[in-house]
Amino acid sequence: MDDDQKAKAHRARHSGRKADKKEKKNEHVQEMTAKQRNPKAFSVQSVQKAEKKFRRAKDLQEKRHHVPLVDRTPVEPPPYIVAVVGPPKVGKTTLLQCLIKNFTRQFVSTITGPITIVSGKKRRLTLLECNNDINCMIDVAKVADLVLLVVDASYGFEMETFEFLNICQVHGFPRIMGVLTHLDMIKNAKTLRHTKKQMKHRFWTEIYQGAKLFYLSGLIRGEYLKNEIHNLGRFISVMKFRPLQWRTSHPYLLVDRMEDVTDPESVRTSPKCDRNICVYGYARGASFKSKTNIHIPGCGDFNIHDISLLPDPCPLPDKEKRRSLNEKERLLYAPMAGVGGVVFDKDAVYIDLRGSHSHKEGRGEDGRQVDQMLQSMMKTKQTIDAKMQTSKFALFSDGTVLSPDDVESATVQDSESRSRRPAFAPISEDGANSGSDEESDEDMSAEESDVEESEEEGQNGCAAAGEATSDEDDDGVDLEHDENLEDSGDDGSGDDDEEDRYKWKKNMKEKAAEAFRARSQKQRNLQFLIYGNEDDYKEEEKEETENTADFLGELFRKVKKQENTQAEKRSWDGVESTRCILTETDALIKDDEISDLIKDCFITGKWGDEEDAKALLEKDEELYGDFEDLEAKEKEDQEQVEPVVVEQSGEESSGRSKKLSREEREAQIEAKRQERKRKLKEAFDNEYDHDDEKTHFDELKKEFSEQAQLNQKEFEDMEDERRVQFEGFRAGLYLRVELLQMPCELVEHFNASYPMILGGLSVGEGRTGYCQVRMKKHRWYKRILKSSDPLILSLGWRRFQTMPVFSTQDHNGRNRFLKYTPKHLHCNATFWGPITPQGTGFVAVQQVHEQTASFRIAATGVILDLDRSTQIVKKLKLTGNPFKIYKKTAFVKNMFTSALEVTKFEGAALRTVSGIRGQIKKALGNPPGAFRATFEDKILLSDLVFLRAWTEVPVQRFYMTLTTLLAPDEEKTKWQGMKTVGQLRAERGLHAPVLQDSLYKAPERKAFHFKPFVIPRELQKNLPYKDKPKVKSVTEGGNALERVAVVLEESEKEKLKLMQMMKTVHKEKLRKMKDKVIQRVRQHRAECRKSEMKQLKRQKELKKRICKALSRGKKPQAKT
Q1: Do 858 and 893 touch, CB atoms closer than 8 A?
Q2: What residue spans carry the region label Disordered (predicted)?
Q3: Which of 220, 267, 330, 962 is the most buried (most CB within 10 A)?
């Protein structure tokens, strides 16, 4: 050993005798806590606090409960859809490739469309990649059972992640698991830990506390670490899924293959003609019915022309108890990706020879993989019929050689005589008896039972085949060329071919009588045919034959002992009165006697004591005891022996069961007795002891579980072809759906990266009408939504564009129009669209073609009500002016334009600006639109009269389905429907029209001149002197000079002018002096500020010197 090589570290044992001994030696004894040592000290101190704590615990417990639903999942559920979602370049494709390799041990280089794999003994998965298109994200959120949300940890969460989460919240919220990639880009360990913690808590905020988040460290040779992918695959394989309401009530199908079955001639003559297509996929959700209406998101509504059942291309493995799957059971089915090998169709089977599934051993010269058997089939130039016509057949190496003419002649004779006869000529007695002495008696008995069984089943074959079997090595079938057949024919018997050909015609009458007698003996009694299952014995024979048969030469089967037991079992029927055996004495029996014999075989007949049904049931109860689910026992313990019925005589009830010893039988009886006692005790405990612990939630769960078991047992034993006639095509079946008159663009522009979904529609969902919803604008969406602007909604299976009108509901139930959506409140909306069940959620976006960095989800909501009509109103304020007033009556004009409008509003309430209320009475003839109204008080001519009314806002009948699947690949993400008015104005550079009446104006108050106060003369006489109005003189009034006109002379005018000039000069002088004073004051203030600044500066310097001196411990010296 080299010195550089380190010694292997010691690995301590974790199991075994030594590990157990060490564990017992170091066993830790848990010490008692303070609460356990002194429970009284920790008793309840406050009853109110204890009550609140108890209520809080119960509330949390109830919040964790889901509403129990009936589990309608079939025994073999369809593959669960696992969608990988995330922004571009985060590692979605690499993650899918690693998951496929983890489950199937195969590497798929190109992932196109859904890929179905077998992930476990009871689970299949359909892996699907979602591209960065909001239409694709919406469709995937509707069908995915599990979403792997891939996030680039080096960059952080992106807008696409939050957009998809908001879409999922509306459409049922499937199970979501986060996957963080690109962690190797973060080099600092501390930053890495901080990033993981931060993103985990942000992820929990959006999903729920404790949501699972996986970390993928990095890439090695282009793949993630095997251990991390294995852990992720284990979580996916054991995850439980809760049924979503919309999916369980609607059938849907995710298309994994599409074929164009249109007549090629029609496509050649008219390339743009409608196409007939066939789509394939697993049925999911509810059961599909024939002629069901469906909707294809991104295409439109269609009707199913034909639907049929196909074999499962990716079946679950056989029910065997193994821990893991073997290599043959790790199936992969991806027809769109060219992986899967064999593709089944209704009338054809397609075999892919150049996929990545074939093996390296079968590579040809061109380097492509071609299987040898399939290659030989491709090189075949003749059909099977032509080969059969030229071939010959020899049953034994020394037997007669048969040609197709011999077989055809025998077949014609068989159809003419209507009796079942062997198709081949009988072999001579010498050849039949050769080697018979060497066989044992047991073999002979087995051969005889085989012959009897073949006769009873009515199968055509060689009657002497069982007698002629001499050696196992000599038995076989020779299908060789003519030369080999001639040689083998020469070695056989010495009879000529022509004699052997016509030897079967001898003794035809006797053979026909024997065949008729055998058929008459084969008929069962009527009692068994009515009350029993006539296929029981055949099914048992078939199973035993398939499991235990030993084929000789791939043609004959060696008879075993169990078949003798079956033949004996069939002979137990015996000959009863209902046997139809024609004898000579049958003609003497009267019709009444025959009818009595037939009646006696039914329930109305006379039963003996040992044949009474009630007595037989009691015996069975004593003998068998309680019912035991044997299949469940086999699943729990493979080695447990199936209970058998032990009779007193000790004989075996069936020939297939092994004979047990006495001790084993007693042990089984004792075990059954103990099991019965345990069940009785458990039933007693459930009924009495734990009755108070059962809650309403537990009772609901039990009720729904019983209903689910009842649903499964209803059609459990029925074949699929017959079962679909009763319940339709249930979930889990692989279907072929034929659709007629589909748009040609769907076939020409089909892209497998965009999911194609067939969503079933319930009755009434194909109609359109007014839908009333409650919605709220998303707080992250920057723009505000306007009424009657086009909006794209995702509702149910559909994606469509419509024009909603927003409203709010008043306390009296009136829907009042809103021009814009509230910022942080819910509002109602009404639009014209497809009828959808109440409670269905929807998501709204304004555009799907815009590539913006901002948030694209505009609003979310839920369906409230469905109605064929709706009424949304808005305020209408009409104004008028009074033109005649008579006390409390006024004539008003300029409010209406005709007498007809006035008649419509008779009795309506009016109001003036001053608050006086009134009512419309009757229309006037002139002017048009004038009316008479009465008020509470007398109004003025200057008053403004207005009427408050409501007018209905119409909802536009606009509904357009998004057709993204019909667009070419480069235009699938650029679909654009109706544009908003704002977008059209912005493109054309137009401004919104402004109405002058809609502008807000500043109020203008005009001065109101009141009339002089006048007291009547009669009232002045009675007033005291102090209250009587006084008549003032001209001089006393104060305005005498203004009222008297003064005319000046020339000299007076000059003097007045001079005085005015002197006043003007004096005013100018005063103004200048004032300006100088203001200037001096400003200068003085400036000088004062300068002096203050100098003083402050000196003070600061003095403070500095003082501080320095204090710090040095010296006295400061005053500056001179």
Answers
A1: no
A2: 1-47, 401-505, 627-672
A3: 962
Taking the C-alpha atoms of residue 157 and residue 149, their distance in angstroms, rounded to an integer, is 10
Closest by alpha carbon to 506, among 400, 385, 401, 413? 413
Q: What does residue 510 show for φ and ψ, rounded to 5 degrees?
A: -65, -40
Q: What is the pLDDT of residues 863-885, one digit of tens each?
A: 998 776 678 999 999 999 999 99
CATH architecture of residue range(s) 80-244: 3-Layer(aba) Sandwich (3.40)
- What distance in Å separates the CA atoms of residue 646 and residue 670, rounded to the nearest whole number? 13
* 47-101 tens-digit pLDDT: 888 899 889 988 888 777 777 766 677 778 899 999 999 999 999 999 999 999 9
Would the pLDDT of 519 be above 60?
A: yes
The distance between the two most distant Cα atoms of the chain, rounded to a whole number of Å, is 182
Decide: 863 and 773 in contact? Cβ < 8 Å. Answer: yes
Q: Is the pLDDT of residue 610 over 50?
A: yes
Burial environment of residue 554 by CB neighbours within 10 A (0 to 12, 13 to 18, 19 or more) = exposed
Q: Ramachandran region of residue 179, left (φ > 0), alpha (ψ -120 to 50) or beta?
A: beta
What is the pairing mode between strands 349-351 and 401-402?
unpaired
Kindly report the three-state secondary structure assignment for every residue of 298-345: CCEEEEEEEEEEECCCCCCCCCCCCCCCCHHHCCEEECCCCECCEEEC
Cα torsion angle, 667, 670, 675, 676, sign: positive
The stretches of 851-935 forming alpha helices (DSSP H) are: 899-904
Strand partners, 285: 251
**Helix count and strand count (H, E) for the chain:** 34, 38
874-952 carries CATH number 3.30.70.120: no
Task: Give which of 133, 253, 226 is closest to 729, Cα–Cα.
Answer: 253
In terms of C-beta density within 10 A (0-12 exposed, 13-18 middle, 19 or more buried), how is residue 91 classed? buried
Task: Tell me the two tokens of residue 957.
Answer: 């009948």
Among the listed residues 394, 404, 424, the one whose alpha carbon sits nearest the alpha carbon of residue 484: 394
What sign results for the dihedral spanned by CA atoms 819, 823, 828, 832?
A: positive
Tokens of 945: 């009269």
Name the nearest CA neighbour of 84 among 20, 132, 12.
132
Most confident of 310-314, 364-368, 909-913: 909-913
Residue 1032: its pLDDT value, please?
A: 65
Least confident of 177-181, 552-556, 849-853: 552-556
pLDDT computed for residue 176 by the predictor = 93
Question: How do the domains of the chain map onto residue ranges?
Answer: 80-244, 252-318+326-350+724-732+734-757, 762-872, 874-952, 1080-1104
The alpha carbon of 215 is separated from its chain's Cα centroid by a whole number of angstroms, namely 27
What topology does CATH give the domain 762-872?
Elongation Factor Tu (Ef-tu); domain 3 (2.40.30)
Q: How confident is the model at residue 923 (pLDDT cuts 50, 70, 90)?
A: very high
In b/e form, how buried is each residue of 46-57, taking b as 16+ CB within 10 angstroms? eeeeeeeeeeee
* Alpha-carbon span 878 to 934, nearest angstrom: 17
d(C-alpha 832, C-alpha 837), whole Å: 15
Q: What are the residues whose beta carbons fall under 8 Å from the beta carbon of 136, sequence distance 6 or more?
A: 130, 753, 754, 755
Contact (CB, 8 A) for 834 and 796:
yes
Summarize the chain as % helix, strand, coil (round to 5). 40, 20, 40
CB burial of 1080-1116 (b: ≥16 within 10 Å; e: otherwise) equals eeeeeeeeeeeeeeeeeeeeeeeeeeeeeeeeeeeee
Do the domains 874-952 and 762-872 match in fold? Answer: no
Q: Can you give the pLDDT at residue 699?
A: 80
